[in-house]
Amino acid sequence: MVAGLDDLLEGSTAPGLAELRRLFEELLGGPGATSRLLSQSRLAPDVYRVRFEENGRVDSFVVKRLGPGAAWRNQLLAERWLPAVGLHRFGPPLRGAAAERGGRSVWQVYEDLGDGGLDEQAPDPVRVEAAVQLIAQLHTRFAGHPLLAECRLHGGDLGAAFYASSLRDAVHSLEALRPPAVDLSPARSALRDRLLEQLGLLLQEESERAGVLHEFGGPETLLHGDLWPKNVLVISTSGPLEARLIDWDRAGVGPVSYDLSTFLGRFPAGARPWILDLYRRAVERAGWHLPPAGVLNRLFETAECARLANCVIWRALAVWESQAEWAFHDLASLEVWLGTRQPTLPP
């Protein structure tokens, strides 16, 4: 048996721990295993790093609890979508999954790739280039691929439809924050009204923005959907540096500007042009040509506004359901972000 396995994530109230422990017993050699739990640490909500030792060898895993939809999407990515374009080694290194009995969530176990995320404040050109090359391969290889229909089914549409639906749903959720359902203070009522005004102006731009996406957005492709630099690991191997993409929970289908706006926007403004040039040169080898910076900024802003509006939905619903204090704080921050947008690329 695995010594200490009953202590795995001890103290957690998350469902499915019994199923997760049985999965680890299988991964580590079954009932006859001689491993022992060495350490465990929390990396994020419902994300843990756990280490086991056997005869001096240490195996490290990342354990993550997901909703069933996101878990199935991650499994499809690891086992079907990325292998279909020859990128099976560069995605989430999934080792196994265990669904809790109620079907509300799934624990997934990944090989631990370490802490090789990109430095957002001081990006290393060599590491960034390895990351950009992989991102470009993902985008160009999936453009027009027959599996895009399946990717859209299980991941969603992150193009013009995402912009429109996120804004409309955000408006509906904010409009619900009125008596008798919710009794807001004057200050919070004013916050709701200011957000509604901002979203209304963005909705008026829906047709124009959709036209720009249609004309300049390029082919639809598989998108990571949450391409923060921390989700791009660059690791040392026996050869050149290699990148890996993790945390595909929001993967979907749409134009590359959706991924690029997330990726570029987390780096210092002065670094964004040379990082974009790396991507531009990489996709040109596949015959793609990105539009000029002014058009890209419009595309990037459309993606960012859609994401912010989508965030409004879930905070407003939390207020509607329970008047959650944290949700009011987040809505105030979202108002500021929507009102102080800056171009991703310098003029």
Task: Characterise the protein shown here.
- With 347 residues, the chain is an alpha+beta fold.
- It has two domains: 5-111, Phosphorylase Kinase, domain 1, CATH 3.30.200; 125-339, Aminoglycoside phosphotransferase (APH), C-terminal lobe (Aminoglycoside 3'-phosphotransferase, Chain: A, domain 2, Alpha-Beta Complex), CATH 3.90.1200.10.
- 48% of the residues lie in helices and 15% in strands.
- The protein has helices at 17-27, 68-84, 125-142, 148-155, 160-175, 186-204, 206-216, 256-265, 272-284, 293-322, 325-339, and strands at residues 36-44, 47-54, 57-66, 94-99, 106-111, 221-223, 232-235, 242-245, 252-254.
- The strands form three sheets. The chain has a five-stranded antiparallel beta sheet.
- The mean pLDDT is 94.
Please write out the topology:
Layout: H1 17-27, E1 36-44, E2 47-54, E3 57-66, H2 68-84, E4 94-99, E5 106-111, H3 125-142, H4 148-155, H5 160-175, H6 186-204, H7 206-216, E6 221-223, E7 232-235, E8 242-245, E9 252-254, H8 256-265, H9 272-284, H10 293-322, H11 325-339
Antiparallel strand pairs: 1-2, 2-3, 3-5, 4-5, 6-9, 7-8
Helix pairs in contact: 3-9, 5-6, 5-10, 6-11, 7-10, 8-10, 10-11
